[in-house]
Amino acid sequence: MGEFELINHYFAAAPCAQGGEGVALGIGDDCALLDLPPGEQLAVSTDTLVAGVHFPTVCEPLLLGQRALAVAASDLAAMGATAIGFTLALTLPDVGPDWLGAFADGLSRMAQRCRMSLIGGDTTRGPLSITVTVFGRVPAGQALRRSGARPGDLLCVGGTLGKAAGALPLVLGEREAPAEQAEPLLAHYWSPLPQLELGQRLRGHATAALDISDGLLADCGHIAKASGVALEVNLAQVPVSPALQAFLGPDGARLAALTGGDDYVLAFTLPAAALAELEGVELHVIGRVLDGQGVTLRDAQGQDITPAQRGYQHFRETP
Amino acid sequence: MGEFELINHYFAAAPCAQGGEGVALGIGDDCALLDLPPGEQLAVSTDTLVAGVHFPTVCEPLLLGQRALAVAASDLAAMGATAIGFTLALTLPDVGPDWLGAFADGLSRMAQRCRMSLIGGDTTRGPLSITVTVFGRVPAGQALRRSGARPGDLLCVGGTLGKAAGALPLVLGEREAPAEQAEPLLAHYWSPLPQLELGQRLRGHATAALDISDGLLADCGHIAKASGVALEVNLAQVPVSPALQAFLGPDGARLAALTGGDDYVLAFTLPAAALAELEGVELHVIGRVLDGQGVTLRDAQGQDITPAQRGYQHFRETP
């Protein structure tokens, strides 16, 4: 048995590879087989993380395993899907069993939180790179798309924004912060929790949804474009975590919340009447949908303070 | 729009990305959505090709696009599945529009042959690497597994073997050959045709199947192990192409056919009674299934000429 076959057997023995609901056949044959309940559709998404581009080349493999799966599973949340499983394509330099064990542990922890199984993969030699393809199920016709926002809808997000962007200088070792500031930011960066339950609750209520990966304003632009509407964001309503405010100050925290990537928090639109049916769900109304196009940012006085479009850059590609 | 968003739009415009049977939602949202007919299961497989490991760093992007999809789709053939679609995770160095256009063209050509659609993907900066995840459908319980071979079954393959291994010195520029030898070998290396129709015909007949990627003897070992049986291969019955024999001579051709990787031809077992029902299907009986374990190779006189197990190495990881 070759080195990579050994590694594949190693992953096949991980807790997350022991099958689960919807997995008819897991690792070990030419394909995995999934069962889909009648009346449901399969949701699929692929994400690649490259060392030195999407995460620092030197990092904790356990954290990396958690993050790689979380980032991909967040796309299932954005569609309102229930997670089933994932495949892992791992390109590896020469790493030892400690690295592999910790990485598989991180994967398994996140898989358990998301209730999904590792169903297949491929391991090759090369510069460290991780491609995760996730699978979920959603009742036919009920997936949350980007294209259904209607004028009059409210614009909402599922949690505080900017933490991952705020964490970046800590991740890169460029800055330090007291533990009470650093810990929540780093926890969010390395282990964002895909909002799967929120996505499922929004089915039948939200008119459009996505997960914020490029930054709030850029991603609102995606909804606006796909739906053929304008979105208005009220800066004073955008939720920012206390740790981020303490670390970056109010202005820096606001900028991170508006333009920072990697939040993996859902942004969505819904009619105001839906709020009553979503009692108990954490959501923050931050604006509204209007006729027109593009995204407008307004301050507490209602002034248009929209930054130039060129200001929105991928944080995710800058490390 | 960033460079990679442009590239993703470029792929979204490729002929293979225009949807097809079973694709409810293609590229452009957080997930793609697939429909599965009632009573069918989804088959999933992932393959990564890394430049300098699985193909030469300098090569024709059109051929690379064809090969990347063919290698992955071959796993669907091995399960007896009907192809639906694939996702593409592409890690790219700085390449120009000519490269991208030719690569997308190669993908589209193979996608058309396999009747499958590009349904999503991710593009990142880094050393050239291609991860393709393929999706197919197969009637529930009818997928061809590796584990069902029974003593008394015949061992068969779906075509001539060794061409890709024979092509390797040509691909790497280490040797030259006259066109009538080189062309069929290079065609098979760069554009192996996944045996999807054969796999589908074998449903309900074959007791075990896989696609030969590690080499005939190594892959027969996988069937033997998964099924808990012994396999006997008769060297004289192993089909070898005339071009390969002319290029490598009879001994070299035989070695390539037995141990060369990357054939992507199906190997399968079936009861002799099934042959009558498979009239018109290209298949070559090369041996039989016995009680016991492991793989035995016999010459025309019935002598055991099995090479030492250590002799089976991945051609796929040596370039």
In spatial order, strands of the major sheet of chain A run 8-10-7-11-9-12
Total count of domains of chain A: 2
Kindly state the number of beta strands of chain A: 12
At the fourth CATH level, what is the homologous superfamily of the largest domain in chain A?
Answer: PurM-like C-terminal domain
Plain-language structure description:
Two copies of one chain form a homodimer. In chain A, strand 1 and strand 2 (32-34) form a beta hairpin. Chain A has two domains: 3-139, 60s Ribosomal Protein L30, Chain: A; 154-313, PurM-like C-terminal domain (Phosphoribosyl-aminoimidazole Synthetase, Chain A, domain 2, Alpha-Beta Complex), CATH 3.90.650.10. With 319 residues, chain A is of the alpha+beta class. Chain A has helices at 3-12, 61-78, 97-114, 163-171, 179-190, 196-202, 216-227, 242-259; strands at residues 23-25, 32-34, 40-50, 82-92, 117-125, 129-139, 154-157, 208-211, 230-234, 266-270, 284-290, 294-298. Residues 310-319 of chain A have low confidence and may be disordered. Chains A and B meet through strand 2, strand 3, helix 2, strand 4 and strand 5 of A and strand 2, strand 3, helix 2, strand 4 and strand 5 of B. Strand 2 (32-34) of chain A pairs antiparallel with strand 3 of chain B, so a sheet runs across the interface.
